[in-house]
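Re: [ENG-882] Designed sequences occasionally contain unexpected residues at chain ends

Forwarding the minimal case from QA. Structure tokens:
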């Protein structure tokens, strides 16, 4: 039988670390190896960090956010988005669908002016339509207002009053009566500025949103404005292949 070579000691070789045996219970926390006084101090420090909002695990190490949320039910989930008020986007309808460009009177009408028109006088009408293209219903508590861009808050008017509601897909018409042949600059280049519960947007009707020379009659004007909204120059764009300048909508931002 051949003899094995004798194992020789080589002091120049680095000794291997001793392997730790596997344990079902895991390693003991670092504080367990400390002296009693030091261990008590480490535990006090861990409790202080937990009270300060730095959650630690059983071994005194900082826990991740998921573990912290599981340990404390009052802690918010870091992956959960906080509930916020809905945001809205005002846009002109440039891609008509079988729904969004259809105008069916009668419409709810909102005058964006504080000086009432005089019966029997001749005015020019500047108006745009706005569709609620959301699935939400709004009321007076929704905080919807409208004014002309560039004007102060004193010239801002509530869109809904009393028990009025703005239902999904409902169209409302916003207008102003003016004596000018071509309305002032804020009305045309700026347009109607909407404040929809904090979300702001401007609906610019442009010259095609102007209907000239009507004789104001309080009893007949609502029906006349409905006709202008449906048959006026600003609502004929989709029939000729161009954009409708007076047909607008607001949608909910995802």
């Amino acid at each position: 039988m051949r003899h094995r070579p004798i194992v020789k000691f080589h002091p120049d070789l680095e000794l291997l670390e001793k392997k730790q045996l596997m344990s079902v219970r895991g390693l003991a926390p670092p504080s367990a190896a400390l002296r009693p006084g030091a261990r008590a101090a480490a535990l006090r420090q861990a409790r202080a960090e937990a009270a300060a909002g730095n959650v630690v695990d059983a071994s005194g190490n900082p826990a991740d956010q998921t573990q912290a949320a599981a340990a404390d039910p009052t802690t918010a989930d870091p992956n959960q988005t906080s509930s916020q008020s809905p945001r809205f986007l005002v846009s002109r309808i440039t891609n008509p669908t079988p729904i969004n460009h259809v105008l069916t009177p009668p419409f709810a009408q909102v005058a964006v002016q504080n000086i009432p028109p005089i019966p029997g006088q001749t005015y020019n009408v500047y108006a745009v339509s706005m569709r609620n293209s959301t699935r939400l219903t709004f009321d007076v508590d929704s905080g919807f207002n409208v004014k002309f861009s560039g004007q102060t808050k004193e010239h801002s008017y509530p869109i809904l009053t009393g028990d009025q509601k703005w239902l999904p897909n409902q169209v409302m018409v916003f207008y102003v009566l003016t004596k000018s042949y071509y309305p002032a600059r804020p009305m045309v280049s700026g347009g109607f500025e909407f404040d929809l519960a904090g979300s702001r947007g401007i609906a610019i009707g442009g010259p095609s949103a102007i209907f000239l020379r009507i004789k104001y009659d309080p009893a007949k004007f609502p029906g006349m404005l409905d006709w202008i909204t449906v048959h006026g120059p600003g609502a004929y764009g989709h029939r000729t292949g161009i954009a409708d300048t007076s047909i607008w909508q607001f949608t909910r931002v995802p």
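QA comment: On inspection the terminal residues look reasonable. The chain is about 15% helix and 20% strand. Proposing we downgrade this to a documentation issue.
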